Amino acid sequence: MTVEDRTAIVTGGASGIGAATCRELADRGANVVVADVDDERGEALAAELSETDGDGHFVETDVSDEDAAARAVEAAREAFGSVDVLVNNAAVASREADGPITEFEDEAFDFIAGVNLRGPAYMCKHAIPAMRETGDGDGVVVNNASIAALVAEPGMDVYTATKGALLSLTRSLAIEFAPEVRVNAICPGVVETPMLERAIEEDETDETLERMIEETPLGLADPEEIATVVAFLASEDASFVTGATIPVDGGFTAR
Fold this sequence. Notes:
Shape: globular
Helix content: 40-55%
Largest sheet: 7 strands, parallel
Order of helices and strands: EHEHEHEHEHEHHHE
Number of strands: 7
Number of helices: 8
Strand content: 15-25%
Structural class: alpha/beta
Oligomer: single chain
């Protein structure tokens, strides 16, 4: 599954699934732009990637800011000469900021939607033209959604809505930009990431996550298990896959 010499931008790339994806792509020979708000971790990871079969470059990026999204794309072009793959991984989830639709606040809605939906839209707005201008006619977008887009859980209505909308955006873009750009989405289940740790810390009495882990036939996932699926979708082995939604959930949605 080669991605050798291709340039990938991974948003939210400094930790969790994003960092695992950066490492997986670089190990396969890709040049990876780590786009994240965490400059310390991002810089460290980019330096690590430079020691692999690929290369790394960090760009401080708040995807909810269109100017920042545009700068990330331009940085990829300047550092590596092309844009071939975009992984829209950056996301936020917060039970404190979210909640039932009868209780949400405008500020919380704007924060969650800004990162989870407007962010991928901004990145695609700038990355897809760059793919068509600089790439080899096989651009790739992989959107990281969630099983929350497929199976609802209480108490996270805004988050769930943004992830469902991301699946619709995936299908729309896949049709609009074929055959030059393939666009697919993954729906991870419960993964051992910093986001999961923060969710548990926010509400230690919440039994939802514990139940979801117990109801997942394959148990809690490692970020690397999600990253390998992203790498497949980014590679030429997935050349006839577009507009697809792929659960990577250990069998949770099969129940």
